[in-house]
Amino acid sequence: MTAVRPPPFRPALARGSARSAQPFKDREFARAFLREMVRARVLEERLIRMVRTGDGFFWIGGPGEEAFATSLGLLVDKGAGLAHDYLHLHYRSNGILLSMGEPMLPFVRQMKNVSTDPYSGGRNFVAHAAKKEWNLMPITSTIETQFLVALGTARAQWRARKRGEKSGVTVVVGGDAGTAEGDFASALVWSSRPGEELPMLMIVTNNGYGITTPAGQQHGERNIADRAKAFQIEASVCDGNQPDKVWAALSDALDYVRERGRPYLLEIAVSRLHGHSSSTGGHRVPDEVCCIDTFEKKLLKSGWIEEGDLKRFYEEANQEATEAIETVRTEKWPDGSTVLDHSFSAGDIRGGLPGRDF
Ligand SMILES: Cc1ncc(C[n+]2csc(CCOP(=O)(O)OP(=O)(O)O)c2C)c(N)n1
What pTM was estimated for this model as a whole? Predict the structure, then answer.
């Protein structure tokens, strides 16, 4: 078994708010951004392979969303507590967490459902992370419920701002089909109550499908972002396949929410490169735009990377994945006696609930 080592590389990317697409004028930034996108893609491809080789039961994830994921991961203010951003993500968010600094190993552990999985002790599907130190609320399989939970942290941050305390913002992410749920409508209503507007960025990653149902058969409106208008919520739509465009849209939206303390709805058009999940096969879909291909070609053309660099990026990422898979190979599933751990029970409720005084 290989020893657990830190990931083989960390991109030299600056964190924090950066209005506009300016950072993409910097060669080193663009190269590091591409390397991080490749890392996210390779993780997903290796997770899919784990299902095929019997090292996992189910795959779902975000290949095709890397330009968005890498941008968001670098732009959020990560940390614990109200002063930092809260994240309410969905099951295509591995790339966001990688670019925030998470290694591949925990994702591989959750894929194999081993007890060392730090997110759920081996009890949840892959891509259902949770990390208290980064205000990452547990990712759920039920779609859109995160939009209601997000109102809670956004409301707590609104209160902190009123008390004059430093406060981050709440970021919630979901897919296009999920916006048909009442939870999404509730988020629009409750985030925009006059005089009590919440510091909440609502992101809809629109890949055009809800499992197999095309969005065009589900929504009469032109863009999902158009729904914001009725609530006087600022909104925009952007192309999630172009790193500089999605970076600019995200940084502008985040700056708006941070500075104004008001909600914002950002709809991002993304690709879904391996279908919905392993339940629909998980095979590569040939006719979708790939944000990594496009960006690679652009950087090769400008001379900012060479074929050798590309090869190295993939090798490094694959090495990190291989080491994680090797590590997990001998790890065990959780013991049956732990099945009720971390679930609500009468005992928990009798002992009192935390965070009551809202
Ligand atoms: C409340 C609820 N209803 C239905 C489902 C079944 N379901 C799982 S994924 C999915 C489609 C979600 O599509 P979308 O919101 O566009 O996100 P995507 O998976 O395309 O990123 C559905 C209906 C669910 N998980 N939860």
Answer: 0.92
For the segment 314-326, what is each residue's pLDDT rounded down to a tens digit? Answer: 999 999 999 999 9
Nearest atom within ligand 1 for CA of residue 178: 15
pLDDT digits (tens, 9 = 90+) for 290-322: 999 999 999 999 999 999 999 999 999 999 999
Residue nearest to atom 11 of ligand 1 (CA): 210
Residue with tokens 């070609």: 297
What is the number of domains present in the chain? 1
Ligand 1 centroid to 319 CA: how many Å?
33
Query: Which amino acid is present at 224?
Result: I
What is the whole-number distance in angstroms between the Cα of residue 1 and the centre of ligand 1?
A: 38
In ligand 1, which atom is closest to the CA atom of 144?
1
* Torsion angles phi and psi, residue 119, rounded to 5: -85, -35
Question: What CATH number does the domain containing 81 carry?
Answer: 3.40.50.970
Widest CA span of the chain, in angstroms? 64
**Residue range(s) defining the domain that contains residue 79:** 24-331
